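Action item from last meeting closed. Structure (204 res):
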């Protein structure tokens, strides 16, 4: 991690706790399918462990429409702001994230917009991870070459693989459903693995 100047964070299940949104989504699928919510969750987790998008795949399997994403139920993880505060004293910080419109406004409402120097969100940029274009946009906006940047996220497919391909350093935070991913080859292997943002602040 030498010569690093920029840290780019994913948002969902990295800085933002989405557990309640997913709970409501699975409850909606369970209601349509006429199944206990716990069974729906277990089947979804099994799909995530197969490196599939558990909520989307399970909704298809059960013939249920995927419930809308209710971002109003998102909240910050307890360790998010402290981590950003500490790291912003040493690095420039950005986000590369697949998000609904209004990312900057949501970060402002969470009280953490002040820590971000670059925001590259899919709804505003017209490109979504794992498309390299959104990474290119963020790096160009930052004026940062890939080898001086770190991508931190929960998704191997959306965060780690494309960032590695560009030459960025990578840190996988293993929380949320992304933490169930099974690494199958070297292209998916991050430079580091952590379980929470407290570990990240200690490492960097």
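Sequence:
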């Amino acid at each position: 991690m030498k010569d690093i100047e920029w840290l780019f964070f994913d948002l969902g299940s990295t800085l933002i706790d989405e557990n309640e949104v997913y709970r409501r989504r699975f409850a909606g699928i369970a209601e349509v399918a006429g199944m206990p919510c716990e069974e729906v969750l277990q089947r979804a987790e099994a799909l995530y462990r197969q490196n599939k998008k558990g909520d989307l795949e399970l909704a298809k399997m059960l013939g249920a429409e995927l419930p809308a994403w209710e971002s109003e139920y998102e909240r910050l993880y307890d360790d998010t702001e402290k981590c950003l505060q500490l790291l912003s004293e040493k690095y420039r910080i950005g986000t590369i994230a697949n998000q609904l419109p209004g990312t900057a406004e949501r970060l402002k409402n969470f009280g953490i917009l002040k820590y971000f120097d670059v925001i590259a969100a899919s709804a505003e940029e017209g490109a979504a991870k794992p498309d390299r274009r959104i990474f290119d946009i963020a790096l160009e906006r930052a004026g940062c070459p890939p080898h001086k940047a770190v991508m931190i996220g929960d998704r191997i497919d959306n965060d780690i693989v494309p960032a590695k391909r560009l030459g960025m350093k990578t840190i996988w935070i293993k929380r949320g459903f992304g933490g169930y991913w099974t690494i199958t080859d070297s292209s998916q292997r991050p430079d580091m693995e952590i379980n929470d943002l407290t570990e990240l602040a200690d490492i960097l």
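Note appended to the action item: Residues 19-33 form the longest helix (15 residues).
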